[in-house]
Specification:
The protein is α+β, with helices and mostly antiparallel strands. The relative contact order is 0.13. The model has no long low-confidence stretch (mean pLDDT 85). It has 3 helices and 4 strands. 46% of the residues lie in helices and 28% in strands. It has a 4-stranded antiparallel β-sheet.
Length: 153
C-alpha cells in the first residue's frame, strides 16, 4: 500500500469532523423548528374549525328553538316585531363562550305576512374581547328563515 492510500483509508475510518457534526446539527435544528411551526399551525387550524362547528351547532339549536314557537309565543318571549334580542351565552369546549342573538322583522304585510328570523352566533378566538385588534379574532355564523306570521313553520 502506498502512503496516500493508507492516509485515505485511515481518514475514512476516523469518523466525522467537528464541522460536519455542527452542520448536521444546524440542519436538524432548522427541520425541527419547521416541524414545530407546522404542528402549531395545524393545532390552531383544528381549534378554529372546532369553534366553527360548535358555533354552527349552537345556531341550529337556537333556530330550532325559535322555529318551534308560534307567533304569539315569539312575541310573548321576545317582544313585538322588530326583535333584536340577546339570547344569552352558551359555553362550548374549553369554556369557549358563544354569544347568541335573535333578529326578527316583518318583510311582507298582507295578504300573507312574512317574518324573517335570523339567529347569529358569535365568538372570539384566543380569549380576546370582541372588536379587539380590529376584529381579527371575531367570528360569526348566522342562520335565516322566512315564515308566515301565523304559523310556526
Amino acid at each position: 500500500m502506498t502512503e496516500t492510500s493508507v492516509k485515505q483509508s485511515w481518514r475514512v475510518q476516523q469518523g466525522f469532523t467537528l464541522i460536519e457534526l455542527m452542520v448536521t446539527l444546524v440542519v436538524t435544528m432548522f427541520g425541527m423548528v419547521a416541524l414545530l411551526h407546522l404542528n402549531l399551525t395545524m393545532t390552531r387550524a383544528n381549534q378554529s374549525n372546532g369553534h366553527h362547528l360548535e358555533g354552527g351547532t349552537f345556531a341550529e339549536e337556537a333556530m330550532e328553538e325559535i322555529r318551534g314557537l308560534t307567533s304569539a309565543e315569539l312575541v310573548a318571549q321576545y317582544g313585538s316585531l322588530p326583535i333584536d334580542r340577546d339570547m344569552g351565552v352558551v359555553l362550548g369546549r374549553n369554556d369557549q363562550e358563544f354569544r347568541r342573538r335573535l333578529l326578527a322583522v316583518q318583510v311582507m304585510a298582507a295578504p300573507t305576512p312574512l317574518v324573517r328570523l335570523r339567529v347569529e352566533v358569535s365568538w372570539t378566538d384566543d380569549g380576546a374581547e370582541p372588536g379587539a385588534d380590529n376584529g381579527i379574532h371575531d367570528h360569526q355564523i348566522a342562520l335565516e328563515l322566512l315564515r308566515t306570521e301565523e304559523g310556526s313553520q
